[in-house]
Amino acid sequence: MATLTHQESATAEYLELSPRTRKTFISIIVAGVIVLAIGLILAAMHIGGGHEAAGAAHGAAHAAGPEAGAGAAHHEGSPVWLKRLLVSLWHNNVFFVGVSAIGTFFVALQYVAYAGWSVVIKRINEAMSVWLLPGLVIFLVVFFAGRHDLFHWTHDGIMDPKSENYDAIIAGKSGFLNTPFYLIRMVVYLGIWWFFSERLRKISLAEDLNGGTEYFHKSINVAALFLVLYAVTSSMSAWDWVMSVDVHWFSTMFGWYVFASWWVSGIALTTLTAIYLKQAGYLKFVNANHLHDLGKFMFGFSIFWTYVWFSQFMLIWYANLPEEAVYYNQRLGGFNGAYTWMFFFNLVINFAFPFLVLMRRDAKRQMIMLKIVSIAVLIGHWSDFYLMLEPATMKGENGFIIEIGVALIFLGTFLILFTKRLAQASLVPVNHPFLDESVHHTT
Amino acid sequence: MTKRFALGIFDDEDVLMHAIENVRAAGVKIYEVFTPFPIHGIDDALGIERSRLPIAAFFYGMCGLAFALWMQIYMLGFDWPMIIGGKPHIALPAFIPVSFELTVFFTCHGMVITFYAISKLYPRWRTPVLDVRSTDDKFVMAIEINESTDLNNLSKLLRENGASEVNEKEMTKN
After folding, report:
1. Which bin fits B162, alpha (ψ -120 to 50), beta or left (φ > 0)?
2. Cβ-contact A323, A172 below 8 angstroms
3. pLDDT tier at A62, thresholds 50, 70, 90
4. Chain mean position to CA A385
5. Which chain regions cross the lipid bilayer (chain B) (predicted)?
6. Tens-place pLDDT, residues A188-207
7. Do A320 and B86 touch (CB under 8 A)?
8. What is the distance of C-alpha A217 from the center of its chain?
């Protein structure tokens, strides 16, 4: 302590990926492919979760309330294995795209707040945005391949009063939920997020080369504009990508709910990356004080997620309107209780666990504790998205083998791209005006 | 009780921080440091132990939570049961907002009262001010002295470490 005037010159450091790390990433992908293949074969042979649930699905769907009449009365669309694959591609992509965008959101937030402490970890956040373009491609491919399996509102004739598929409620939403406008919005969201990610990154890299405060001021302007646009687009993307699978249902909390999930996952990923880099001998300026702040963020926003989750739950529970309550009906007891355990598991792993573990100051300053909680939070919010998407799309025919396989493939690919982008620039933004403040950060 | 202090007056927080380290390394016990604003890391430099206030806060919070749950369960479940919105009498989700608020309420008030008590900040307590300039722009390091203290050495030590002046002050505490 008391190193306030003690000057250590901050020099650039570059991440070098060892062949072993790369091999680990590739083996994650290989493991994912194997798990996925096993899952697909099992599902195609009607063994395991899919088969058992398939029988129960019809009964449960009828019991699930008004949704049942429109949604699950007749099994439609692709065979179960393909449907599960498409849904799980969509699910994982929503999760990874969201976490990716949080990287840029975090950087922008720090700029606008004039925050100094986070400068030494900002390159991690910059690199996180790497999934935005691949994410757009995956979204488009999955949408074209499987929109009828994912989105009830894309079915033929559903907006046509003369058709027997006609659904007046969905037809009332046709101004917003129609394929061309939906695709335009998707491209616009990801386009905006990608553009601002690249812009902030470019300014930051130019600052590394040339120095001076003009880059900092320019970043603040860019960041402020991004935050305004992100506030709108993050909410709208949540309606589009997640809420519209339950097309009869609606919740005004939903945009924030999804954002809270992304945000806390993004912080968990940042923390986890910082710890791994630190343990691999990089980021020598990151110390317990920076980790403490990240831990506080993770603690606080786990509670924020719970707050939003509960606000949505309590109003629907109290009012008990059938059109709203069906959402929790399906998740708490619907489909023969297929999702009941997950409903409570989410609350435990996303709220109780981080809350109790990170409450103490010491826990937020210890790498091992933060590591455990970060991993738990990431798994927890992955399963949070699972619970948002699967009951609406798969009804009672959900499973876990295919889903985990796809998740591992996504994870491995993301890590390869992420670390590649991380290695492209110095891990220390050497000419950032607040670098010195960050190096001497005390909590 | 009367105590005598040597006061090292500093103009700069960085100088002060180094002085604290060096003075403590020289084996001199620092009574207290008065600064116009909070300085990051000064607690560690002075070797002050971490406050146990958070532990107390946790228990205040638990008290608040227990009180809130007891109150609602007793009132709405037993004392005056009413059917509200067709929900059971003891409807836990509906109790959560009130439980949360009372947990926060008990924690804040408990912490503030405890903090005042342990800092001896209560009405009619006279707070000794050793040098009024510490509320403006000077940093004051107070070192308790007695008959055996070598004042010349102490003064030299403080001056060597950047003190702009070294004063002596007597303070009567009651």
Report:
1. left
2. no
3. very low
4. 8
5. 55-74, 94-118
6. 999 999 999 999 999 999 99
7. yes
8. 30
ipTM field: 0.80
How far apart CA A85 and CA A401 sit, in angstroms, is: 10
The closest alpha carbon to A398, from A320, A323, A337, A308, belongs to A337
Across the interface, do B97 and A314 touch by the CB < 8 Å criterion? yes
Alpha-carbon distance of B3 to B7, in angstroms, equals 13
Is the Cβ pair B40, A310 closer than 8 Å? no
Name the one residue in this structure whose structure tokens are 């709910």.
A257
Q: Which of B17, B58, B97 sits opposite A2 (nearest CB)?
A: B17
Q: Which two tokens stand for residue A170?
A: 């969905």
Q: Which of A84, A181, A224, A201 is nearest to A132 (CA)?
A: A201
Global pTM?
0.88
- Summary mean pLDDT of chain A: 89
Residues from chain B that touch A5, judged by Cβ atoms under 8 A, are 14, 17-18
Kindly give, in sequence order, each residue whose CB lies less than 8 Å from that of residue A435, ignoring residues fewer than 6 positions away: A10, A119, A120, A428, A429
Contact between B57 and B112 under an 8 Å Cβ cutoff? The reply is: no
Q: What share of chain B is helix, strand, coil (3-state, %, to 5)?
A: 50, 15, 35
Question: What are A242's two structure tokens?
Answer: 């997640």
| pLDDT tens-digit series, residues A365-387 | 999 999 999 999 999 999 999 99
Read off the DSSP letter of residue A119.
Answer: G
- Chain B, nearest residue to A362 by Cα: B50
Phi, psi of B167 (to 5 degrees): -115, 170
pLDDT of residue A206: 94
CB contact (8 A) between residue A5 and residue B14: yes
Kindly state the DSSP code that residue A165 receives in the 8-state scheme.
T
Read off the tokens for B32: 């207290």
In whole angstroms, how far apart are CA A252 and each of A43, A78, A185, A187, A258? 36, 31, 19, 23, 11
Dihedral sign (CA A280, A286, A292, A296):
negative
